[in-house]
Amino acid sequence: MREVLVLAEHERGQISKSTTELLTLASRMGMPAVVHLGDLTESARSVLAEYGAGKIYIVDRPAVHEYRVLPAAEALVTISVQSSPVAILITSSAEGKEIGGRLAVKLGSGIIIDAIDVAADLTTTQSVFADSFIVRANVATGIPIITVKRNSTTPVAAPTTPTIVKIDVKTSELAMAATIVDRTPHDQSSRPELSDATVVVSGGRGVGSADNFSLIEDLADALGGAVGASRAVTDLGWYARSNQVGQTGKTVSPQLYIANGISGAIQHRAGMQTSKTILAVNTDPDAPIFDIADFGVVGDLLRVVPQLTEEIARRRS
Amino acid sequence: MRIAVLVKYVPDAAGDRHFTPIFTTERDAVQGLLCELDEYAIEQALQLVETAGEGQVTVLTMGPDNAAPALSRALSMGADDAVHIVDDCLAGSDALATSLVLAAALARIDADLILTGMASTDAGLSVIPAMVAERLSLPLLSFASALRVEGKYVTIRRDDDEATETITTTLPAVVSVTDRTGEARYPSFKGILAAKKKHIERLSLAGLGIDPAQVGLLGAMTVMSSVSRTPSRAAGVKVLDEGSGGIQAAAYLAANGFI
User: Fold this and answer.
1) What is the architecture, at CATH level 2, of domain A3-176?
2) According to the CATH classification, is domain A194-316 in 3.40.50.1220?
3) 8 Å CB contact between A135 and B24
4) Which stretches within chain A are classed as H helix?
5) Is residue A36 within 8 Å of residue A69, measured between CB atoms?
6) Which is nearest to A6 in space by CA: A139, A162, A193?
7) CA A310, CA B32: separation in Å to the nearest integer?
8) Are B136 and B107 a contacting pair, CB within 8 Å?
9) CA nearest B25: which of B10, B4, B15?
10) Do domains A3-176 and A194-316 have the same CATH topology?
């Protein structure tokens, strides 16, 4: 069976959920073959095996621990030349798109960005213009390179015993040109990562102050969710920019999205309207967020949200 | 210091954007404007030149005749001159073709620094900076939330999900900037008047030595097969909080398996 290359995304030795999603998509069109830059931990190996990786290419050079884009693109070129894969799948992260863009030029291959589905015949589905249109497309030239949005598919376990292949890639001088001179990891939040979370609880201008955000956090914690914020809130400095949901922030697609004090401007909706279920709390009965909410409460969130948090705890006890 | 800024004329995201029958973006029905995210790149270019006390900011765009207002806006903000790549054969170009054309135009400028926004607000793919950097064999520092130039080096700060990073490279380089770099200035009345006298160079594919077969719909390496409207989300239940709004919301969540 021909290989479908999947670029592994990993941090601190752990494989990201999106990589398991890519493996599930890859198995539709061939044998998933993972390209893993850096040391492969036992935990990473077992996750990749559980989700159907038939082969794991390990590319381990010092440069891959530094600025990873060009070493990754160069490794994918080397492996593609050897194995002529059916397609190359990459997570649609900032880094993934950068790798994909460079790779498309290097291979002279067409690239599809931000796919939300890939069929066995490689037809991709994309959601565009703030999710108002569904586009189907195919790569017509070269090895299809497809970057896939997180949470687009449910990973399905398909245990295998992967073959491990170590690959030596000559890294170019250009790949070493950028250096990370300092890296300060953010404080590890006990909450799930926003882009991966199954529940997201967000606050907008209606929250009223930075202090009131503790109400949003309490609700998020009650549901095991991540905290999101509208752009207005991050502009006001009430909450961290890294939690911004919307066109210029993160795009989320959780099972449940709770919008508190968010009017629902198009820029915000662009980042969350593919959420499976939307619950909204707003004082303005005409707020556009109610047009897309499955359940809306017209009222003061400072009263509704704590009551909701309390009721969740009561029902669970 | 010579700085080139790549900009795009996009349909207003607040308008009812849609596609033409041949699946290209409909650009006539919705009011167009300079991509908001590109204004941050122009602002950073202007600030770098102001800090250095010398330099030239050139803005480039690829687009039809009616894309010129994007360049006028950039010139009235304070950019020195502009390049408009316009050619009928370019309609329907994909990202690879667009990067080919932009790279060819940039090669003629010999800029020390090429700045871009973090994405366009229409296609929103964020791949052009990487493709242009690859074609010009330049390093790319992407998604900068702050940047500074010191001698032959450019250094950025990047705030991603996991960490805040400081990344540095040598010039020439491509840098894409986010909306965290700081608000872009509004064109002043004086700036608008001055812009009318600034030079906009028009370039065709022939002028860039690019074969029309490599661009436009014919040269596209990806083919769209269908476009359909997303079924609109129907509004659900809306209740007025009369003291038990939170309890009602909890009941809804419980009924749908979230509690």
Assistant:
1) 3-Layer(aba) Sandwich (3.40)
2) yes
3) no
4) 17-26, 42-50, 69-83, 94-107, 213-222, 231-236, 266-269, 289-292, 301-316
5) no
6) A162
7) 48
8) yes
9) B10
10) yes
**pLDDT number for residue B121:** 82
Number of Cβ atoms within 10 Å of the Cβ of A316: 9
- Is B168 within 8 Å of A98 when comparing Cβ atoms? no
Query: What are the φ/ψ torsions at residue B85 (nearest 5 degrees)?
Result: -90, 110
Extents of the domains making up chain A: 3-176, 194-316
CA–CA separation, A10 and B110 (whole Å): 38
User: How crowded is the C-beta side of A150, counted as CA atoms within 13 Å?
Assistant: 22
- Name every chain A residue with its beta carbon within 8 A of the beta carbon of B92: none
The C-alpha of B49 sits at a distance from chain A's nearest C-alpha, in angstroms, of 23
Q: Are B174 and B147 in contact (CB under 8 A)?
A: no
Delineate the domains of chain B, giving CATH numbers in brackets: 2-219 (3.40.50.620)
Nearest-CB residue to B225 (from A137, A184, A266): A137
User: Which residue bears the tokens 């950019």?
Assistant: B79
Testing the interface with B: which of A311, A314, A315, A316 to mutate, by most B Cβ within 10 A?
Answer: A311
C-alpha distances out from residue A229 to A145, A204, A316, Å: 33, 6, 27
Q: Which of A103, A75, A234, A244 is nearest to A170 (CA)?
A: A75
Considering just the CA atoms, what is the radius of gyration of chain B in Å?
Answer: 22
Element (H, E) at A164: strand A163-167
Question: Looking only at Cα atoms, what is the longest distance across chain A?
Answer: 62
ipTM computed for the complex: 0.89
Is the Cα torsion angle B165, A214, A192, A41 positive or negative in sign? positive
What string of pLDDT tens digits covers the 317 residues of chain A? 899 999 999 988 899 989 999 999 999 999 999 999 988 999 999 999 999 999 999 997 655 446 778 889 999 999 999 999 999 999 998 889 999 999 999 999 999 999 999 999 999 999 887 777 899 999 999 999 999 998 888 899 999 999 999 998 888 888 888 888 888 877 766 788 888 788 999 999 999 999 999 999 999 999 999 999 999 999 999 998 889 998 778 888 899 999 999 999 888 988 898 888 999 999 999 999 999 999 999 999 999 999 999 999 999 88
Q: Position of tokens 């770098």?
A: B48
Q: Does B150 touch chain A (CB under 8 A)?
A: no
- Length of chain A counted residue by residue: 317
